[in-house]
Specification:
mainly alpha; elongated
Length: 520
């Protein structure tokens, strides 16, 4: 047996203290309302998940996890006694929290992340002189608060958290089946099992791994929500303990593993190119000058006062399943020239559709607006995936695989889409014809290719592979999302058709990985 370090023993003590401290407080009053989800009992333990292919980590043992004490150890027996004591005096708030987390931590954390991202999706208001302040990560609570979770920012955030969680859970599964420590309710049959049961070993705790990852990365990406994030993580750990699923030492090991994996991803994020994605005034002007030099009308901001373009260098941000050369090679060909008859025809089509919009088309515009204070298009596709994951009764590690694959594809689609947008710098329909009355918020970035089309084709591609029975529905949602932008008067038909083809090709990179990652 490996000796426990003082730090590890301190972590166990902290976990017990946390559970007891929370046992007397009302946990539910600080929890924002979330979409209802059914209780999930894993249909499969996925015992081999520790051998599934890694994406960023070198392997499941990159982060060491020491062996646990045997179940006969007095210290472990003391942990079991603490669980029994806690179960003897459960509060209504704790019972509510157990029900909440019984739907699965992966699904709950994705809901939480979408809620936080939507609250952060607020573009800065202009200064009195017409300039715009920039959110500052070094001072996140100042005006404007950091971040402005626009679609590219949100796509990147969803992907970092989802992939890190997946990697950490694969590592956790490796150690679970290496050490095979039973859950407390199995080690001591007088302990009740208050969450759905399975034969998945308890050390390290998967709930704690998720809490560790999400605390570390969500507070980095959404620092103004730190209190809510910490409260959720504490509650998840408490539920794992009082439900009889995990002991204090299972939880301490899980939190340590989750945070260590998150640190690897935080280091990646620090140098992935996001810091330079906003560009500068000289760059913005050069993009317009390049379009003019090609004989085209360059895109201009139609906000009042004109706003700097959204993240013009996001097309250089590091991708998950592609290389920088792949992004260039997959870049679509040019849009119709702004002086061409085709562009005149497409602009006239936008105006004609907007002027004769049906009620169904108007509803489609609203459904897919995904504008200010929303989960953005990538979050919309996470919401589409949610019921499929829940209905499949996946283990936590397999549920995390869905969100990791989906959000990698959505992020890579965002990078590829933004690369095309700023390479061509093509104007919106209402710039070429100001009489076009847009039906939704006008995005402050170039038109070609359509982001909704790109995101949706990538998302549909991955979900259709993972849930083939839903493929027809996913593809219908993709078509609807894409066409909503034509109905809204903010995209030409070519933006949409080329965007869907582009997104599908980018999504295929993730699908090819999924076919060989060992999970099938």
């Amino acid at each position: 047996m490996t000796r426990k370090t003082p730090l590890f023993r301190a972590s166990i003590s902290a976990a017990i203290f946390l559970a007891l401290a929370l046992s007397t407080s009302s946990c539910s009053k600080d929890i924002p309302s979330s979409e209802p989800l059914p209780t999930v009992t894993p249909a499969n333990t996925d015992a081999n998940a520790g051998s599934w292919k890694m994406i960023v980590l070198s392997g499941p043992t990159q982060i060491p996890v020491t062996a646990p004490a045997p179940v006969s150890d007095p210290g472990y027996q003391s942990e079991l006694a603490s669980i029994k004591a806690a179960q003897a005096s459960l509060t209504d708030a704790q019972k509510t929290a157990i029900t909440y987390w019984s739907s699965g931590g992966v699904l709950r954390w994705n809901q939480i992340m979408r809620e936080i991202a939507a609250r952060s999706d607020l573009p800065p208001s202009p200064n009195p002189d017409g300039s715009y302040p920039v959110p500052n990560p070094a001072n996140p609570f100042a005006n404007p608060q950091y971040p402005f979770s626009n679609p590219p920012y949100a796509a990147r955030a969803y992907s970092y958290v989802s992939v890190a969680q997946f990697e950490a859970l694969k590592a956790a599964w490796y150690y679970k089946y290496l050490y095979n420590r039973p859950s407390p309710f199995k080690a001591d049959t007088s302990i009740k099992a208050l969450l759905p049961t399975s034969d998945i070993p308890s050390y390290p705790s998967e709930d704690a791994v998720e809490a560790g990852v999400n605390v570390a990365l969500l507070t980095l990406l959404f620092p103004t929500s730190v209190d809510e994030i910490n409260a959720k993580a504490a509650e998840q750990q408490q539920v794992a303990l009082i439900s009889g699923r995990a002991s204090a030492s299972d939880i301490a090991a899980g939190v340590a593993l989750g945070k260590a994996v998150a640190a690897v991803f935080a280091a990646r994020a620090a140098s992935d190119g996001m810091k330079a994605a906003g560009g500068n005034a000289a760059l913005w002007q050069s993009l317009a000058d390049n379009a003019t030099a090609r004989g085209e009308i360059p895109w201009i901001s139609q906000d009042g006062p004109p706003r700097p373009p959204m993240l013009p260098v996001f097309g250089k941000v590091k991708v998950w399943m592609m290389t920088p050369n792949d992004i260039v090679n997959e870049r679509p060909g040019p849009p119709p020239s702004t002086s061409s008859p085709q562009m005149q025809t497409e602009t006239a089509e936008v105006k004609s559709i907007v002027n004769s919009l049906t009620r169904d088309q108007q509803a489609t515009v609203y459904k897919w607006a995904d504008g200010v204070s929303t989960v953005t298009p990538p979050g919309h596709w996470d919401a589409i995936a949610e019921p499929y994951i829940s209905a499949a009764s996946f283990s936590e590690v397999r549920a995390s695989r869905v969100f990791a694959l989906l959000n990698m594809a959505l992020h890579d689609a965002a990078v590829g889409c933004w690369d095309a947008k700023y390479f061509y710098f093509n104007p919106r329909p209402s710039q070429l014809d100001p009489s076009i009355k847009t039906q939704t918020g006008l995005p402050n970035f170039p038109s070609y290719v359509s982001g909704h089309s790109d995101f949706s084709a990538a998302g549909s591609d991955v979900l259709s592979y993972l849930f083939p029975d839903g493929a027809t529905y996913f593809q219908a949602q993709m078509q609807e999302a894409a066409m909503s932008r034509l109905y809204a008067g903010i995209h030409y038909r070519s933006d949409i058709e080329v965007g869907m083809d582009h997104g599908k090709r980018i999504g295929d990179y993730t699908v090819r990985f999924a076919k060989t990652d060992g999970a099938n």
